[in-house]
Amino acid sequence: MRYTLKLDASWRPIEVIDCFKSVSMVLSGRANTVEEYNEEIYPGIKIPSVIVLKNYVRTIPFSKACNRKNVIWRDQYTCQYCQDQFTYKELTMDHVVPKSKGGSKTWLNIVASCKQCNGIKGHRLLHQTNLKLKKQPSVPKVTFSDLDHPCKITKEWKKYK
Q1: What is the pLDDT of residues 101-159, one digit of tens each?
Q2: Are 77 and 110 found together in one domain?
Q3: What is the 3-state secondary structure (H, E, C) of 63-74?
Q4: Are 13 and 54 members of one domain?
Q5: Residue 25, in any domain of the structure
Q6: Is residue 134 part of a domain?
Q7: Which of 21, 62, 75, 104 has the smallest count of CB within 10 Å of its CB?
Q8: Which residues, 6 or more positions from 130, have their beta carbon under 8 angstroms from its beta carbon?
Q9: CA–CA separation, 121 and 130 (whole Å)
Q10: In contact, 96 and 109? CB cutoff 8 Å
């Protein structure tokens, strides 16, 4: 299955769609082909690699869920207390304000932590420990290429970030 990068009328990436939907959008006049694969989906019709919509659409900023995988990605596999780098399996999520003290599971209250630092902190607040945060947790800025896609981002798509 081939996939197509769909751009809005201002040439910003919106989503990745399957090639059948992209051909339908081009043939119905809703989009134009920008780039195409060197393969035909039907005789005489090449598979679009990139299409651009003819109309503007209201875009919603890209975001990622606040979960273990994405927190570790945001914090670049680094414990936010000792500042050492670890593998994915060696890191945990730590609530800066523990759940037992009313802390929520949000981007602003969760950090990547190694198991040792997480154990030291436990259910205490930071000022009750000797630990300090490397940086304050924040909502990450997410671009199209940071999102999980049903396929690998092709070299042709990278210029449309």
Answers
A1: 999 999 999 999 999 999 999 999 999 999 999 999 999 988 777 776 667 777 777 77
A2: yes
A3: CCCCCHHHHHHH
A4: yes
A5: yes
A6: no
A7: 104
A8: none
A9: 9
A10: yes
Domain count across the chain: 2
Q: From CA 70, how far away is CA 94, in angstroms rounded?
A: 13
Give the pLDDT confidence of 46-82 residue by residue, as tens digits: 999 999 999 877 666 778 889 999 999 999 999 999 9
* Residue 23, domain extent: 3-61+143-160
Closest C-alpha to 54, from 24, 16, 11: 11
Task: Note whether 74 and 123 are same-domain residues.
Answer: yes
Residue 21 has what pLDDT?
94
Token readout for 23 is: 């051909």
Please classify residue 113 by burial: count the beta carbons closer than 10 Å to its beta carbon, then call 0-12 exposed, 13-18 middle and 19+ buried.
buried
What is the distance between the alpha carbons of residues 47 and 110, in angstroms, rounded to a whole number?
A: 43
